[in-house]
Amino acid sequence: HQKLYTNHFLVELDGGDGDAQRVATDSGFxxxxxxxxxxxxxxxAHNGIPKARQRRNTRxxxxxxxxxxxxxxxxxxxxxxxxx
Amino acid sequence: xxxxxxxxxxxxxxxxxxxxWYLVNTGQADGTPGLDLNVAEAWELGYTGKGVTIAIMxxxxxxxxxxxxxxxxxxxxxxxxxxxxxxxxxxxxxWFNSHGTRCAxxxxxxxxxxxCGVGVAYSSRVxxxxxxxxxFMTDIIEASSISHMPQIIDIYSASWGPTxxxxxxxxxxxLTLQAMADGVNKGRNGKGSIYVWASGDxxxxxxxxxxxxxxxxxxxxINSAINDGRTALYDExxxxxxxxxxxxxxxxNPEAGVATTDLYGNxxxxxxxxxxxxxxxxxxxxxxxxxxxxxTWRDMQHLTVLTSKRNQLHDEVHKWRRNGVGxxxxxxxxxxxxxxxxxxxxxxxxxxxxxxxxxxxxxxQEPQAISxxxxxxxxxxTDACEGKDNFVRYLEHVQAVVTMNSTRRGxxxxxxxxxxxxxxxxxxxxxxxxxxxxxxxxWPFMTTxxxxxxxxxxxxxxxxxxxxxxxxxxxxxxxxxxxGTQSAPYIDQRVSDYQxxxxxxxxxxxxxxxxxxxxRSLKSLLRxx
Lengths: 84, 529
Prior knowledge:
The complex is a heterodimer of chains A (84) and B (529). By secondary structure, chain A is an alpha+beta fold. Chain A has helices at residues 17-27, 58-66; strands spanning 4-13, 30-34, 41-45, 52-53, 70-78, 82-83.
């Protein structure tokens, strides 16, 4: 299937919630939450990016990863789930 | 194992209670009396789900519904579709977002309040996790839902999955797998979160082993029967299904549907699809957890295998069979219909099962051609890591991790036969699947049918094509993964019913342990002489 990419990112970073908020604010993202497993995994979203697009948004990914606190950022792929 | 209908003295004033045949089946809508979840026995013993929280991962919950509000656990609820703590369903003209509210009613609808019906675990608490109602699903939303408050939420119920169109092969992505692993290892303060999955709505065109959520070892995959024991028309079948509960699914009779709560304070008799299977099972597991809060995620699967009953379930396509240690199973119903009474009685005295080990039984890495002329047969002889620390002597789950491609994926058919002679259908034909590019890439086909067996010996994998046209394929890799215990899981369990599967399994284990002990002593004597 044609892949789709959303405006949600998984961001792995050093530091705590405060640092995550600062990284998000600095990059124009919203830090939605910390994931309760793994280390320093956060869920970011950006309202300026289309909700679903066929091409990755490399610019915002690199922009995030330029921040020294950010280890890496992964744009979330969109897929379908159905109610049964 | 049947009970007389007259023994059941459960009377509730909830108007839909008498129509909830999956709770107490007295033959409503041409159903089969006695074919139900046997919750009456559990309730009579005092188990109604007190202290247990079940999360419904779905499109939200009408937590203002008078039949749900009392048991609603707001603290454990969240809305990952809109990122706020209020998982109230979004209104649509066709009430499209009623799914979660209907599932919640089957688990936790309050009893004796003269509203709608009664939940299987009517004193349990229900949390809403709204995570299906956004334009697209993402790995991070699934992972966040599956790992939400694992120290408060005991059971996660899911009645959704990849599209059941008979041509999809899909499952949890990386983050969600990590979340599940974290849940079963650390959830419930180390006892493990319990994930319950409805196996699928794809009917005979699909195979739920192609659904990575349902076929995961970490989820209890539940199928559904209708009120007279037949299969629902939308039932899929696969070897990873562990047990069954009930849903509508074949009859026009409105009372043969599943009665539960509906949006905006309403009730419904027509909750359709296999989605009701998971919350009903979650309710039964909640009763067992109340009886024994120390049960681990694996204990729950063992109890499911040991207490589920064939009862009066019948499947025209797949016959009921017995595995190598005498446990009766069916390719669609698993080990049978859940028996809440039997489960809580066994749960009360249950001692947690021994440590679980994982062994790579063997692997075939050379490419093997698959043709339409005859089946390709591969054999792996394994000692199940005997003599090593990770020796697996008593099986729980078995996975055949397979990489294969073909000119038409849907015509592929795969069977796995264990050393003790139990044949599992790993993959059935899926006539709508015309994939010729993606195939299966390290896909973990799982079977629960060899539960309790001794894995040592030769495993046989047969792969072929079924269907009229000539096809070609290649199997690139097969790795046999064995998961189970080193010591006998039932030998220390207390048996109260000598007709039960537990009694039979315990006797089998005692005999085998005795044989092996005698064998060991003979060998040491011979060595000395």
